[in-house]
Each structure stands twice: as structure tokens, then as C-alpha cells.
Design goal:
Layout lengths: L1 E8 L3 H13 L5 E5 L7 H4 L11 H4 L15 H14 L6 E3 L2 E8 L4 E8 L2 E12 L4 E6 L13 E3 L14 E5 L3 H12 L3 E6 L5 E4 L4 H9 L2 H25 L1 H16 L1 H7 L12 E4 L2 H7 L3 E5 L2 E4 L3 E4 L4 E3 L2 E4 L3 E3 L6 E4 L2 E2 L7 E2 L3 E2 L5 E3 L8 H22 L3 E4 L20 H4 L19 H9 L8 E4 L1 H21 L1
Parallel strand pairs: 1-2, 1-6, 2-3, 4-19, 6-23, 8-17, 9-10, 9-17, 10-13, 11-12
Antiparallel strand pairs: 4-5, 5-6, 7-18, 14-15, 15-16, 19-20, 21-22, 24-25
């Protein structure tokens, strides 16, 4: 069985970043990345629907160690895919990736202090072992998108497409397209398809908050003319992190005022009637994730008549399209179900500790990165209220600090362990105060959080202080050296046997 120091699961944005951090922060460690697909970049290689782009700026979605130098800060999918692959090649990560390796199970062997990883590749079962397991596979299923049950969906005679599985050869120019959904995917698809000649109607059950920002960051583009790329990137990153943090906190502490200001901006783009009917959510800002649109592209599409928005419940699907609860029937050639992601815990991998199966809802998260009772394992889960990579970078930094601490202290096992004072601690959801359906549907399957340090703060400022300034060792982490203990036990046993023989 091949053995390495660290196995990283996933070669997407998080996994490639984790590998670079390991290479820089723990240069002596031998590591591999296991990627189920045959390409790097994860989400940004999987999703190929029209207009696919980031829903946050690339100066915070980009890596801390690699400046984003393109003019557009709200970047499209191909540009992000190129950026991730450039990173893999620039830092020599690609040679560490095992493509086409689907991880099925991970079993911790307490006697050997190792993870045994079982994966499938080309129909063969392969086992590998590692001292440390770093989960970077994202939070949703690549095999299944979320599709609610629609009455009569089998009746529709046209083409039905889920954005996660977009056909490369789809010709939609001149076609009538219904896009079901009101999230980031729908608001990306609608103007992109309309621009290519489709007649598009966005059918939403309820409105979503929408914020328009320039696709280009003028400060970043100006700074790069006068400063080294790293300096310009660092300044822009600091600016964007600070402003987005202030923006988010203002939304949460003054929701009524925030709602008024947000809707005022939308009214200036598409008028009072459209906002009243289709862009006034029933919930407060950031109770669900906001939708970012670059340069007001959705508004332009609505104003020039190529896009229509309908807010209603779908009564049933018909042969020709959708029948709404109002009785109106919308006809279509193509229906796009932009109905969301299917969340998945730990990439659907079965975890075991020796002969015991791990049930993640029974565990508590340690600082949003590790889990009670699971030795030598960390997990990257980004922010819902900021760019994913901000948290991914911090998690990778923490893992490097942790591994170096263990080497320096002669330990080879670390286990987050609930203390006596944690007994009776209230178990709270992994993500709190976030009512989006894709989260609520699956939250009961995720680990829990409680009091410090068993929290998933979703707060970049707090996480940064905790990771970069707080000491690694605390009373919730139990360190030991399994091999050393085993050697001592074996030596004691040998001495006893020899003594008995002599006697």
C-alpha cells in the first residue's frame, strides 16, 4: 500500500490551494491529491452553462499567495478555471494529482495512526494510507443537482436541462426559454442566454435581493499600473474584505434600513413596479445569500425586453410549458431547472474509526475545521457571507501550523476531544441564521457547533485572529504519539517475557 504524509481529497479551488500551502509551509511533507474527475478546478471545470461566473470578486476569491491580475474582478468561469490550473502548474502541484480516483471510504487505524483511503479508479479498488487527511472536496454532489418534484413534469415535450449538466451543443438562439429559479445560477443564465438571442422568462417562487457592482475594480486596475502585482493585490484584497465585512454587519444590525437602501438601488435601474412585484423579498437581507450581478446585466436584459420575470407558484408542467397557480400558461421550447445544489457531507465518503462508523451529526466542529473524535483530519468549508477562498486559505494555513507543531513536539496524532466542561453543551446547526432552502434541506446531516472552540463562526476577522495569532495547543486538542506508546508497550512485554524465561 502506498503511504504518504498527507492525502488531500479534491483538486478544485480549495484542494489546489491547500497543496500550495503544504508545499510552502511544510516543505518536507509528501502529499497527493485524489480527484474523482479527470481535470482540475472543481466547480469551475464542472459548470459550463452560459455566463458562468464568480458571485464574489476575484481579489478575495483568489488565493492569498497568487495575485489576480485580470481586468475583470467579477470573472467568468473560463478565466477562473485558467487561474486555478495556472496555480497548479506554477507551483508544481499537477504532478501530485491522481485524476480519476473516486474516494469511497476513509478508515482510521488507531494502532498504526493512519488513515486508510479506499478509492475506485478505472473500475479497480485502490487503497492508500496517510498520516493526515485533508478534505477539500466542496459541499455539494457532483453527480446530482437538486430538483424538486414538479407535478406533471413528464408531460413537457420540450428539452429539460439542469445547469449542472449543461449540454455543450445546445442551440438556444431564437428559442423560448423558461428558467426556474431566483438564485445566482438563474440570474447568471438569464441575461447570458438573452444576449445570445433566446427569449427568456425567469420563473421564481419568491424574490431575491440583488446587488449590482462593476465587473472591473477600478482601484485594482489603477494600482497595478504603478505597483508590483503582489502589492496591488494585497491592497485591493484588504479593501474588499474590509468593505464587504462592514456591508454584511450593517445588513444584519440594521435590516430595515438596509432593505430600503437595497431596493432603492434596484428601483433606480428597473422602476417601482418591477421592484414591487419581483424584487422585494419577504425576508431580511442576508437571511439568504444575495445575488451579485456585474454591470447590471440582468437589469439591462429586462429593460430591453429580452427578459421577463414572473413571480408565481408553478401549478403543473404541461406539454407546452408551465401552468402557474394564477392559471397563466408559459410556453417554452426549453426549461432550465436552476433549482439549486444537492448538498453532500464530506463528499459522500463513508468514514470509520477502526470498526465504528462515523455519524457526523453526532460530532462537534472544532473551529469550523476539525471534528470531535476524528483524529488527524481537517475539512475546508468556506464562507456563505464572503468569498470561499478566504476560509480555504486560513484552513490550509492552520493545517500547516498544526503539522509543524506536531513534528516539533514529537506527536503524530491529534484529536479534537470534548472536555468535561462541554457536557450538556447546546448543539446548534453548522450554519445558523441562514434560511436558504439548499442549506435547510440538508443541515440535519452536518456536524454541530456549540461554545468556543466548538464553533463555525462564519466570521473572517475572528477566524484570522484564531488561526494566525492563537496558539495551536489547547485543552480541546489531545496530542499523543501512538508509535512511541506502542514501542514502549512492546518493550515492556519483551522485558516481562525475558524475565519470566530467566526465572
Amino acid at each position: 500500500m502506498e503511504h504518504v504524509d498527507v492525502i488531500i481529497v479534491g483538486a478544485g479551488l480549495s484542494g489546489i490551494g491547500a497543496a500550495v500551502h503544504l508545499k510552502k509551509g511544510c516543505p518536507g511533507k509528501i502529499f497527493i491529491l485524489l480527484e474523482s474527475r479527470n481535470a482540475a478546478a472543481g466547480t469551475w471545470d464542472l459548470f459550463r452553462y452560459p455566463g458562468i461566473r464568480s458571485d464574489s470578486d476575484m481579489h478575495t476569491l483568489g488565493y492569498s499567495f497568487k495575485p489576480w491580475t485580470e481586468a475583470k474582478a467579477i470573472a467568468d468561469g473560463p478565466a477562473i478555471r485558467k487561474y486555478v490550473n495556472e496555480t497548479a502548474d506554477e507551483y508544481g502541484i499537477r504532478e501530485h494529482i491522481r485524476f480519476g480516483h473516486h474516494v469511497d471510504s476513509a478508515t482510521w487505524n488507531s494502532k498504526k495512526a493512519q488513515w486508510i483511503i479506499s478509492c475506485t479508479s478505472d473500475g479497480r479498488c485502490i487503497e492508500l494510507s496517510a498520516n493526515f487527511l485533508f478534505m477539500c472536496g466542496g459541499y455539494y454532489s457532483y453527480e446530482h443537482g437538486y430538483l424538486p418534484e414538479f407535478d406533471g413534469s413528464e408531460n413537457f415535450k420540450g428539452q429539460v436541462i439542469h445547469p449542472q449538466f449543461w449540454p455543450e451543443d445546445l442551440d438556444y438562439a431564437g428559442k423560448r426559454v423558461l428558467v426556474i429559479g431566483s438564485g445566482a445560477t438563474a440570474m447568471t443564465l438569464v441575461p447570458a442566454m438573452a444576449e445570445q438571442g433566446a427569449s427568456v422568462t425567469m420563473v421564481q417562487r419568491s424574490p431575491t435581493y440583488v446587488v449590482s457592482r462593476p465587473a472591473e475594480d477600478s482601484l485594482a486596475n489603477t494600482l497595478r499600473r504603478w505597483l508590483p502585482a503582489k502589492w496591488a493585490y494585497a491592497i485591493t484584497r484588504f479593501k474588499n474584505v474590509t468593505l464587504s465585512g462592514i456591508f454584511y454587519r450593517r445588513m444584519r444590525t440594521h435590516p430595515k434600513q438596509a432593505k430600503e437602501n437595497l431596493l432603492k438601488m434596484v428601483r433606480a435601474e428597473i422602476g417601482d413596479e418591477m421592484v414591487e412585484k419581483h424584487f422585494t423579498p419577504s425576508y431580511n437581507p442576508w437571511d439568504q445569500r444575495m445575488c451579485l450581478i456585474p454591470d447590471g446585466d440582468l437589469y439591462k436584459s429586462i429593460n430591453n425586453g429580452t427578459t421577463r420575470v414572473v413571480t408565481a407558484q408553478i401549478d403543473q408542467w404541461t406539454e407546452k410549458g408551465l401552468k402557474l397557480d394564477s392559471g397563466e400558461e408559459l410556453e417554452a421550447d426549453i426549461i432550465v431547472t436552476a433549482t439549486g445544489l444537492q448538498l453532500e457531507v464530506m463528499s459522500g465518503i463513508k468514514f470509520n474509526i477502526d470498526n465504528r462508523s462515523v455519524n457526523f451529526p453526532d460530532t462537534f466542529t472544532y473551529k469550523g475545521m476539525m471534528y470531535s473524535g476524528l483524529p488527524n483530519m481537517a475539512h475546508t468549508f468556506g464562507y456563505i457571507n464572503a468569498s470561499w477562498t478566504l476560509r480555504a486559505d486560513l484552513t490550509a494555513e492552520y493545517v500547516c501550523h498544526l503539522l509543524n507543531h506536531m513534528d516539533a513536539t514529537g506527536q503524530n496524532v491529534v484529536t479534537p476531544t470534548l472536555r468535561q466542561e462541554d457536557e450538556g453543551m447546546q448543539a446548534r446547526d453548522w450554519i445558523e441564521g441562514f434560511s436558504s432552502g439548499y442549506m435547510q434541506r440538508m443541515m440535519h446531516l452536518f456536524p454541530k457547533q456549540g461554545n468556543d472552540p466548538w464553533r463555525n463562526t462564519q466570521n473572517y476577522k475572528l477566524d484570522k485572529a484564531m488561526i494566525r495569532h492563537a496558539p495551536i495547543a489547547d485543552d480541546a486538542l489531545v496530542f499523543n504519539n501512538v508509535s512511541a506508546q506502542q514501542d514502549m508497550q512492546d518493550t515492556d512485554l519483551t522485558v516481562q517475557q525475558t524475565s519470566r524465561a530467566v526465572a
